[in-house]
Amino acid sequence: MIRFWYKQFPQYPPDHPDYWRIRLIEHSLLITTSYFLILTLINLLYFEGYQYALLDGCGLLISLSIYYHFRKKGQVKTTSWAVTIMIASLIMLFVISTEGYSHSLFWATLIPPFSFFLIGRTWGTVISCLTFSVCALLVYLQTQHLEPVNFGTGSLFNVIEVCIAQILLLRFYEKTRFSAYKKLALRNIEIQKMAETDKLTGLYNREKLDVVLDKLLNTHGDNTGAINTGAINPRFNTTDKISAAVTHQAIIDNSKDNNGISSIALKPIPPVQYPISVAIIDIDYFKRINDNHGHLVGDKVLYELAQLLQSKMRSDDLLARWGGEEFVVILPNTNLENAIELTERLRLYIATENIQDMALTISLGVTQYAIKDNAHSLLERADKALYQAKSQGRNCVAVA
Ligand SMILES: Nc1nc2c(ncn2[C@@H]2O[C@H](COP(=O)(O)OP(=O)(O)OP(=O)(O)O)[C@@H](O)[C@H]2O)c(=O)[nH]1
């Protein structure tokens, strides 16, 4: 029954700005319809207050008509106003008809949440102010009569019913607010992921690499003693401000994207460890692959190569696509000697693998971080080494 009440409008998908307003309209109409039905029955059968039963019966009819019209037409703005006016006027009619006695004034507290949620801040404020002015007037008139406050069963019902309605409304509001924030937070993560990820390979992109390198190397400026010793810099543990910032948000999930190409999982960036070496990896004669087999095959080669390289990374290494057919790998806690050994192993591994049924080789330029280096100078040196590797005939590792 409840499911039937909540109609899905294809023109208002979950990311449409009016999606939650529609849910609230349906929710409100469900509440008002049930309330008016219950109140009609209570007034008719228990209190024998036919005047109020008639009023509630009218409310029930109006509520159902608005709901029927909304289901047919799906007009959000008009229905929002209709629901607000219906609720506000019926409540005020009831409050005025009881002259504010029997704690009927409580009902007026339902008007602000409905009107704010449905018709927005400005009109919500206007309607709420009008409502409370009428309530204030009724209270003032009561003080003129100086009658003792009457607290009967009717008062009890009014207080309980209003409290239940408030709880239901605020629960709904909190649910929508939470869901909106959650969606926003997920979007932000997605956007951040997109901004720092290479779409084709799923690796970090150049922008992210620059940021990571800058952060890693800038931390070294006032701590030159630890460099080249091979020891782990004690400042860079997991609680270190900078490494924590770098580690944050570094996990990219395994999910495939729409074209099914990028899906490599990246590990969190590790705490900084010295010495650091860097290598630039470049595919040899990649242009020929594009020329002979087309760019789509070229793309697949890039993706597969990225996967193979990633599979050979140690837990602390960081691999990124630098652009085109070039990749950069940051090797923490690795001196030049170890870096040469490691990149040589990488080169051999790729040379023995078949990628898209093709034999492929890579050239690598390797260098080690030195005092006074910044990200730019470090990469420039590695690039020079790569140039040497290319001029030495490719499929080799060169050092600078
Ligand atoms: N398919 C594909 N090709 C790319 C992409 N980015 C760059 N390229 C191509 O990569 C090729 C790079 O060519 P070159 O710089 O001449 O390098 P190379 O042919 O590998 O030659 P060497 O590096 O000197 O061994 C160019 O043809 C680019 O169009 C990409 O994302 N996808």
From TrEMBL:
A Gene Ontology molecular function term of the record: diguanylate cyclase activity
Domain of life: Bacteria
Keywords in alphabetical order: Membrane, Transmembrane, Transmembrane helix
Occurrences of domain GGDEF (ranges): 274-400
Cofactor(s) the record lists: Mg(2+)
Enzyme Commission number(s) of this protein: 2.7.7.65
An annotated GO BP: negative regulation of bacterial-type flagellum-dependent cell motility
Name this protein carries in UniProt: diguanylate cyclase
